[in-house]
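Suppose you are handed a protein chain with no further information: no name, no annotation, nothing but its sequence. What can you learn? This example shows the usual starting point.
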Amino acid sequence: MKAIIPAAGIGSRFYPVAKSVPKEMLPIGNKPAIQLIVEEALAAGADEVIIVTSPEKPAIKHYFTSDPTWRSRVEGKKEAEEALEELERISKNVRFVVQHEQRGLGHAVLQAAEELKGEKSPVLILLGDALVKSDVPCSCELVSISRELGGASVVGLECVPVEKVSQYGIVGGAFMRDNLLKLNQLIEKPSRETSPSNLAVAGRYVLDSCVFTYLSSCKVGYAGEIQLTDAIQQMLNDVPVYGFRYAGTRFDIGNPKGYCEALAAFR
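A reasonable first move is to predict its three-dimensional structure. Written in structure tokens, the prediction is:
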């Protein structure tokens, strides 16, 4: 299984600091947030993680690139040596593609299509500005559900207040059991009146590799961008797509409030 982490956004909610430090590189303890997300992908069974970044964010690629200079600097400092060895170990599973234009989440995911050409296994997608605090990594839960359903696509969900549905991609469907439903609708940022539920798409997906076919033909949608939710909506007209309300709490680290909440939760 391959994993994709879209991390090319400009981080406007974190300006001015995001001018020099990508939001994904903001520290959670002694690790940047994106390392925790890479570790989650690997724990869920991914054997390779593709990070989608932009030319303006070289710090992410530099971080995951082995540098003998740093090894010499920490020589003899046990904790630092161990942390660097851990980073180098996971970095062997990380590679990069570049999104040259900011055209939405769906467009960012599509940049990895060529790298995954010929892949038949479902693709794990983890948003680079979403951290989830839970006893069991939520990506592990989604992968487990997908396998239970014969490799079907599964979208991670969370409940949101009704008054905030217009800030999220919202799903509709029929519950098969607690926390698991078969989807029949996805709408990007609906009004409160048109929202099919208060179940929001929450930063984690396990999708059939055919999603790239739908993304490649996807028209520009909400906010003039290519939306991943629009591609999934097209998919579920042809193949089953499920939603799973995973355990744990998601933190939007793309804004200062969510980042501070994550710092408190992960300390």
